[in-house]
# Entry
Amino acid sequence: MVRKVGLTDSVGFACLEDLQLSNSYMWGTAISLDYCGREDCIKGWKFGPYVRESYVIHMVKKGKGTFTIAGKTYELGPGQAFIIRPGEETTYRADDDDPWSYMWVGFHGYRAEDFIEAMGYVKGSPIIKIEQMDMCAECINKMLEYSQITRINEVKRMSALMLLFATIMEDNASDAQESDNIEYPSKIYVKAAVDFITEKYMNKIKIDDIADFIGISRSHLTGSFKKEMGVSPQEYLINFRLEKAASLLRSSKEQINIIAYQCGYEDSLSFSKAFKQKFGMSPKSFRNLEVELETNDAKFGHEASKL
# Structure
C-alpha cells in the first residue's frame, strides 16, 4: 500500500498537510513545501485569530472576503492574494453574500523572504494581484495529485511549487524587478552572450536580441561586457564576424559577397568597409595577400629543400 501524507480530498475542499515530516530532500534548503490546498468556503466562514509557523499565501479564485492583520482589515476579491508570515496573528473571513473560493500554499526556508519579495510582497503591504489564476490553480492541483510519500513525488511537488512562485513573480514583475533583483556575476551574462553570438553570428541579430535572450537590459549587458572583455557587445560581435570572414577568405574560394552573408552581413559594401577598418585592406586584397604568402612559403620551402 502506498502511503500518503495528510491528504484530505472532498467536494469543495482538498488539503495536503504535514509535508515537512516527509521531505527527505528539502531539510535545510532554500524552500520547502509544508502544505497546500483549496476550498470553496461557506458564507461567513472565519479562520482565526491564529499565528502561523510557516509562510502562507492564499489566492482568491472567486467570491469575496476580508483579511485582517496588525489591526487593519483588507477586502479581497478574485485575482488577489494575501501573504501570512511566520509569527503574524491574522484572521480571514468569507463574505456573507458571495463567499470566496481560494487556494493556499504553506512553505518555509532560508530564502522564503527573498521569494515573497520577488512576488511583490513588501512589509506592510500583504496584498498582491494574480492574473494567471488558472495556472496557479493547476500548480496547486499538481501538488495535491503528487501526494504519495516517495522521493519522486517530493521533487514533483517542489517543481509545481517553483512554477507557482514563478507565475506569481511574472504577474507582479515591474521595470524595477527586470533582473529579479538578483545580481549574477557579470561573467555569467558575458558567457551566455558569447555562446549566443557563436551560435547566431551568421543571422541578423542585434544587441537587444542578445540582452532579451539572457533576460537583462542592453545597458546591463554592455556594462558586463566592458568589465569582463574590455569591449562592448557590439564591438565583440563585429570582431567575431570579421574574424570568421577572414578565416573563410583564407580557407575557401567562395565569392566575397557569399562570405559576407555567411558572417551576418547582408550588404557586401558595409562588410568591405568594416573589414578594411579592422584589417587595413579590402577583403579582396586580404585574400590575394594570403594567396601570395602561401605561394611564397611554398616556394621558400621548395628552395630550402634543395640545400
Summary: The CA atoms of residues 113 and 180 lie 14 Å apart. Residues 186-294 form a domain with the Arc Repressor Mutant, subunit A fold (CATH 1.10.10.60).
